[in-house]
Every structure is written in structure tokens, then in C-alpha cells.
Write a structure and sequence with these properties.
The protein has one helix and no strands. The chain is mainly α. It has one domain. Pfam families: ATP-synt_E (PF05680).
Amino acid sequence: MVPPVQVSPLIKLTRYSALLLGMLYGKKRYDYLKPVAEEERRIESEEKKKREELERIAKELAEGIYIFFNISVPILCPKST
């Protein structure tokens, strides 16, 4: 087995400096992107509420048409071939 090699202090300093700079950059980038992601989540939740409301209304209308015409096959669902 070969004994470990003595690493230069300059190389150690460079490696730890790069590590520290990477951590600082990551924190800065995270702080920049966090509000953007929160805004996207807020918009998505609003769109989801609107979409669910429209689906609920469409379902009620479909049931209303079904009951109004008193038929066994809903009109809004054409047969697929």
C-alpha cells in the first residue's frame, strides 16, 4: 500500500474556497428563486380552483340535461368508434 501524499496548502485553500463560494452561490440562487416559485404555486392553486369550479358546473349541466331529456345515454358524450 502506498502512503498518502501530502497535499499542498494552496490546493487545500483552493478546494475549500470553491466549496464556500458554491455554498454562497447556492444560497443566493435559492433566495432569488424562492419568491418566484411561491408565486407560481399561488397562481397554480387559483387556476386549479377555477378549473374545478368549471368542471363542477359542467357536470351539473350534464346531469341537468340528462334529467331534462330523461334518456339513458347523455347527449354530451358522443360515441367513440
